[in-house]
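Internal tracking record. Fields below are filled automatically when a chain is submitted to the structure queue. Please do not edit lines marked as system-generated. If the sequence contains nonstandard residues, flag them in the REMARKS field before resubmitting.
Queue: standard
Priority: normal
Entity type: single polypeptide chain
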Amino acid sequence: MNAEHLKEKLCAAFCSELSVNPVPAGLAFSGIFEDLNGDRVTGYLVRDRGAPYLSDDGSFLSDLESSGIDISEGTRAQFMQGVLASAGAFIDPETLSIRTHSTDREPTPDQIVLFMSALVRAQDVSFWSRERVKSTFSEDLMIALVNRFGNEAKFIRQGILGEEFSDFPSDILLKPINKGIPVAMFLAQTTERLTEAMTLSQEMRIRHFRSAKILALTENGENLSLASRKVSRAVNRIDGLLVYRHDEDAALDRIGRLAELPIAA
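SYSTEM-GENERATED OUTPUT FOLLOWS
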């Protein structure tokens, strides 16, 4: 099969699944791609009183919300914003629909293709595991720490406070270069990780080890409830729990003070 023949076959495959139908609001269009429920990913050209725009039906984000998946903040929100921006689209907070801005002319076929591509890519956020969210949070935090404290401390992934604590690696270990106190940071996206921070703190007390601090950080607190007995026990036994997103500078300031770094106010 040569390139031209393959191109014809691919065009035939895509076009055979293409559907464009009139609906009360304008036109509905779909292609070969399916959503999580096995239904075709569908977009709409909404002809709203001479100000047309592209939109989905709002069910995708509504289903995510009802499943407890928050796309209003954190790494999922950043991912969605990046994907939708490529098609000039955004999330309407009132209707939970993905749409473009209204214009005085109907979108071109190229713009419709870009919008459909964004709808398909947006589906990926449903498959993000907690580990991927944690990984992205870890990268963001590491960059911020190095930018703020890079001249005053070293940062070690999976760092341990000493061989006697090798069973309790932290996600990020802050080690002061000159003056200061080491801080073992646990990214507590789940109760389990918060419990590990507490366990390390208790082990330190048993060994009378007082030359380090234990800190838990959560990206936005969405998976932790202070009403939970496990969470309250852990928080009361470590040196701090910080919520990072939306107040990053204050969180970094707190880390600096906890580590007693010279530049901390």
